[in-house]
Give the backbone structure.
Amino acid sequence: MIRRIFKGATVTTAIALLAFAGSTTSMAASKVEVDLPNSSVVGGESTPLPILLTGFTYDKITVTLVSEAGNLTVADPDGKLTLNPGYTSLADQLEIAFNGTTADVVSILETGVTWTAPGDATTKTTLALRVQVGEFQEGTSYDPATGHTYKFITDALSWVDAREAAKLMTYKGKSGYLANITTSEENDFIATKSGADDVWFGGTDDLGYVNDALTLAGKPTVAGPTQTTGEYYWGAGDEAGIMFTTGLDNPVAVGDAFNGWAPNEPNNWSNSEGCAVTNWGGDKGKWNDLNCSNTNSYIVEFSTTQDQFAAAVVTFDNITGDDKDAVPAETPTEKLADTGYNPWLLLSVAVLLVAAGVSVRVASRRR
């Protein structure tokens, strides 16, 4: 807390200057505070989980709640929240993601979240929780693990038409491409964020499309035939022209590449399948090869960076041990004291006032 006593004619100016410095920085600091249960909770018991969001000025925000164990429920009796793609319910979920106007989300999270501990009356569990909050952009999902942004498109297009449509999309200055799925974590993320079956992504072993990718990457083209050997490449983006699978029916990952093929896929059925889908037949995160002329929804990836979201995505996380309220990173030139005021500005004003013959007393204590 800060106490100030000013004397002299410059009092009004000094107060206005200090107030401006403090309000500017506090308005910029979006914050997530969670009132965690004070002790372990008996299995099967539900406990309120107040979550306080402050400083978010976006029209709409998106929130992801993740519990390490047990189930989360968000009460939304008036239907003000919209589930994000890939999520089916606000009740009894290990992970929930939704969006809404900032005012509605703030109000609901403050009183409408409960956590049910896992197990039965013989067990007790301490809640470990992640809360991620950011600006909502229609149809997009941000993956904090990669820093990339993904957009699920419901329009049914052929693989090549989906590829061309993705090229025309931009987000935060980055051009889109059919998503490249390079880790199991990214595969899981995309599987839940694309709310449909049989979703095109960036893998292909069609000779023509493979050579397009190799040309894009500045690499020599190949003579093929790739499709009969299951040599799958990424079609665009950061990994354009990189082979990640070889072989049909029992494919082998190339190098340490991640593969998510369903059993006995890809198989180039009827010698006509050269493009890849995920969520094959409703099996989340499982890949299959289909005829490239089939029409399906698709997932677009944008190679955004974590830095682009440093001030827009705020996370509370005690699952990984960080139980502090997260705020956007401070700029090195304006590191703030715990009070929220710029100490150098405060010192400068004090010096000016003392030089003018005005007495100043500032006392502070930690909150």
